[in-house]
Amino acid sequence: MAQNTGTKSTYVKTIHNRKARFEYEILDTWETGIELKGTEVKSIRQGKASLDDSFAIIHRGEVYLENMQITPYELGTVDNHDPKRSRKLLMHREEIEKLRLKVSDKGLTLIPLKLYFNSKGKAKIELALAKGKKLHDKRESIKKRDVERELRRGD
Prior knowledge:
28% of the residues lie in helices and 34% in strands. The protein is of the alpha+beta class. The radius of gyration is 18 Å and the shape is globular. The termini are far apart. The mean pLDDT is 84.
C-alpha cells in the first residue's frame, strides 16, 4: 500500500489581479465558471496565468474574458492553445442581462479579480463590476495604505 509522504503539491491555489483593487473601485462581484481547454487547465494549475490587463465584454448575450494570458503548457503537443484567446465565462442568462444593463452605465467595466479552483476542481473567476479611479483617488489609496503600514509597525 502506498503511503503519503507528506509532500505538498506544486499547484497554485489562486491567481490574483493585484492591480484591480488599486486602479478600480469595486462595486459588485460574481463567481463565474470559465470555458478552458485541457492544456490551459494544466498551465493554470502550475500558476502560469496572468489576469493583468484583462477585462470582460458582453457580446451577443454571452460574457467573454479578453486579454487573459495563459502560458502554453510545456508538455503540450502541436494542438496547444493560443495564450491570449477569448475565453467564454459561464453565467446564467438573467445574470448576464443584469450585467449588460449595469455596464451600459457610463464608466463601468467588468474585470476579473481572481482565478481559482473550487472544492470540486472546477476553474472559477471572481468577476467584478468596477469603476475606474481618478488620479487623486489612487493617491488617497496610497496614503491610506501607508498610514496602515505605519500603525502596524508602531504596535
